[in-house]
TrEMBL record:
Record keywords: ATP-binding, Ligase, Nucleotide-binding
InterPro entries reported for this sequence: AMP-bd_C, AMP-binding_CS, AMP-dep_synth/lig_dom, Mitochondrial_ACSM
Record-listed E.C. numbers: 6.2.1.2
Family in the record: Belongs to the ATP-dependent AMP-binding enzyme family.
GO BP: acyl-CoA metabolic process; fatty acid biosynthetic process
Source species taxonomy: Eukaryota, Metazoa, Ecdysozoa, Arthropoda, Hexapoda
Protein name according to UniProt: medium-chain acyl-CoA ligase
Domain AMP-binding enzyme C-terminal: 395-475
Residue ranges constituting the AMP-dependent synthetase/ligase domain according to the UniProt record: 46-338
Reactions it catalyzes: a medium-chain fatty acid + ATP + CoA = a medium-chain fatty acyl-CoA + AMP + diphosphate
Coiled coil spans: none
GO molecular function, one term: medium-chain fatty acid-CoA ligase activity
């Protein structure tokens, strides 16, 4: 038990970590506060003050922990007297600011007697432990609720899939706002009793990552496929003489087959892939299982099915909805539900229908072959997966529509060799901007989006159109826009 656990007792948490990818030590301290019956929510640091204000409001957060570089976002989210009772903790030695509590000062003021007398609160297995915001195609981001059982027990499967052992050194490269960060930088290694390796980099440069693997006793690396694409292009053979590595894993998006082949040639080791969602924990196969090109493997962690729109299973080789069987027995690692504010705190939002018959629908498409191997086809919805970031079109479109030049907008994913996908916006201009210089206007709109939401969401490609393809009911036909974008 860490001394600092006591400072967080009796609070809800919403945490932001510093400068992109690095983690703050307070993340692990905060994680232990679930012993007192509280739940955590980590957010991506790229979020705007407006994004943070929304999350503070719907989650009911009582405490925010961040670093000096991001204090201003929290203060901006409190404008006009909002969230005035929020307890604000900053991690940064020597910093003094009105309304903020220094994290290290709190830790130093905890008495040894308090530590010795600390007792965990009895909690129920179905009580909330973690809450994550996940992007969707319509509406605001949804809150995914996980319990002490679904994360504390459910990630035994993650530990198994990652082949973690007691003396391993696990290095997970992911943004602290991801659920992936929570379970691969804490729960799975914690369950296995192995060591978590953290490297504080401003950004992850391929050569530095490879050199770290050569210098340190890291046995397991889990990283976005984007990073593998960059690392495999390094020419210096000395960067691939690893000290202790045993397993490589890719997560967040599919690993390009060409990258997988080149990686195996350079390192002698494959990149193992596994599938999962914020909602489901890990869906995967052990690394010792025989491989099939393009397949995640034969799933052993959950009872998976491919179903049609009515929840009926389809034949082998037929594409359908990737789904998890919840009847007669619900798997431990599945979400408690999508949450919403209620009179007594967060409650399950029964209006979100994610079930068909005996199955939970993941929203992804795929098929099972005759041997039960899972093959992913793609997203069932229109969430854009760019360098591992899931970006909801609605969030980007909402910002675009607040620009004077935008009459209508629609956002889709556009294929990109480096990032997998990038955000592409189709825009119908307002009358005032019909004859504006396109290059200047595109740059202006891109900067506007960067300044009003998380920068990674900005449209790297913009195409001006006279109208948007729609259904009779007015719903945008994104599939038609994707075809149009690829033709142009």
């Amino acid at each position: 038990m860490c001394r600092r656990d006591l400072i967080l007792r009796g609070t809800f948490l919403i945490g932001m970590s510093q400068k992109g990818l690095p983690h703050l030590p307070s993340e692990w301290t905060a994680m232990f506060s679930v012993n007192d019956g509280r739940f955590l929510n980590y957010t991506k640091i790229q979020l705007s003050p407006q994004d943070i204000e929304y999350r503070l409001g719907v989650s009911g957060a009582k405490v925010v922990i961040t670093d000096p570089q991001n204090m201003w976002k929290v203060e901006e989210a409190q404008r006009n007297g909002k969230h005035s009772n929020l307890k604000k903790i900053v991690v940064g030695d020597g910093l003094s600011a009105e309304g903020w509590i220094q994290y290290e000062d709190l830790a130093e003021n905890v008495l040894d007697a308090d530590v010795l007398s600390f007792k965990n609160v009895d909690t129920k297995s179905d009580a909330l432990s973690q809450v994550f915001f996940t992007s969707g195609t319509t509406g605001k981001p949804k809150m995914v609720g996980h319990t002490h059982a679904s994360y504390g027990i459910g990630h035994y499967t993650t530990s198994y899939i990652l082949d973690l052992q007691k003396n391993d050194f696990m290095w997970n490269i992911s943004d602290p706002g991801w659920a992936k960060s929570s379970y691969s930088s804490f729960f799975a290694p914690w369950i296995a009793g192995c060591t978590v390796f953290i490297h504080q980099m401003e950004r992850f440069e391929p050569a530095k990552v490879l050199q770290t693997l050569c210098d340190m006793d890291i046995t397991t690396l889990c990283a976005p496929p984007t990073l593998y694409r960059s690392m495999v292009q390094e020419k210096d053979p000395s960067l691939f003489k690893f000290k202790a590595i045993r397993n490589f894993y890719g997560a967040g998006e599919a690993v390009n087959p060409e990258v997988s082949v080149q990686w195996k040639l350079k390192t002698g080791l494959p990149i193992h892939e596994f599938y999962g969602q914020t909602e489901t924990t890990t869906i995967g196969a052990p690394p010792t299982q025989p491989k099939k090109p393009g397949s995640i493997g034969k799933i052993v962690t959950m009872d998976l099915g491919i179903v049609d729109e009515n929840g009926q299973e389809v034949a082998h080789g037929v594409e359908g909805n990737i789904s998890v069987r919840v009847k007669p027995k619900r798997p431990v690692g599945l979400l408690k539900g999508y949450m919403r504010p209620g009179p007594k705190g967060l409650e399950v939002n029964d209006e979100v229908d994610c079930y068909r018959g005996d199955f939970y629908l993941t929203g992804d498409r795929g098929y099972l072959d005759e041997d039960g191997y899972l093959f992913l086809v793609g997203r069932g919805d229109d969430v854009i997966n760019s360098a591992g970031y899931r970006i909801g079109p609605y969030e980007v479109e909402s910002v675009l529509l607040s620009h004077d030049a935008v009459a209508e907008s629609a956002v889709v994913g556009y294929p990109d060799e480096k990032r997998g996908e990038v955000v592409k916006a189709f825009i119908v201009r307002t009358e005032k901007y019909q004859h504006a210089d396109e290059e200047t206007l595109i740059k202006n709109i891109q900067d506007f989006v960067k300044n009003n939401t998380a920068p990674y969401k900005y449209p790297r490609k913009i195409q001006f159109v006279d109208s948007l393809p729609k259904t009779i009911s007015g719903k945008i036909l994104r599939r038609e826009l994707k075809k149009l974008g690829q033709r142009n």
